[in-house]
Write a structure and sequence with these properties.
This protein has helices spanning 20-30, 60-64, 103-110, 113-119, 137-143; strands spanning 5-6, 11-12, 16-17, 38-46, 49-56, 72-83, 86-97, 125-129, 152-153. It is built from five helices and nine strands, in the order E-E-E-H-E-E-H-E-E-H-H-E-H-E. It starts with a strand and ends with a strand. By secondary structure, it is α/β, with parallel strands linked by helices. It is globular and about 45 Å long. Strands 3-5-4-6-7-8-9 form a seven-stranded mixed beta sheet, with helices on both faces.
């Protein structure tokens, strides 16, 4: 089992994922070449341990209902992108920082962000959500655009 190992660099990561097998199964089912929608969510279950918590094929409201005001959570969402008469996809890494998360906790978890990103790769963009009520497919599409001035939804 590769738990806690970053295969790209072969180093042990400070952030552990306690059910990586389940996450990989969900990623294969929801984020394959034939899928046009999907989401995954990771929650903390310890100071430096995350857990694949939920996933689905629904829209952003399905993911949003699982976001907590007192937690930092990591997600992956597949967006449909319409551009120049064609439809494509954009996979967006989401870090949700609940409004009730304290500044020290934010600092500790920010240090682990790179490890969390590596568990959910590949993705096309990264967005920080500070207010879950502002998380809509429209805001995610806008903030995940490469030319967006801000990659924060607040």
């Amino acid at each position: 089992k590769r738990q806690g190992i970053n295969a790209e660099y072969g180093r042990t990561m400070p952030l552990k994922l306690d059910n990586e097998g389940e996450l990989r199964e969900a990623q294969a089912a929801l984020f394959n070449v034939n899928s046009t929608s999907g989401w995954l969510l990771l929650n903390y279950v310890g100071p430096s341990t995350i857990h694949f918590f939920a996933g689905g094929e629904g829209d952003i409201s399905e993911l949003r209902q699982h976001l907590e005001d007192d937690q930092i959570q990591y997600g992956l969402f597949r967006l449909k992108v319409h551009q120049n008469g064609t439809t494509g996809i954009r996979d967006v890494f989401i870090v949700s920082i609940g409004r009730q998360v304290g500044i020290i906790e934010k600092g500790k978890k920010t240090a682990l962000l790179g490890d969390a990103e590596s568990y959910l790769q590949p993705f096309h963009a990264s967005v920080t959500v500070l207010n879950r009520d502002g998380l809509t497919e429209e805001s995610l599409l806008d903030r995940s655009h490469p030319l967006s001035g801000s990659h924060v939804i607040d």
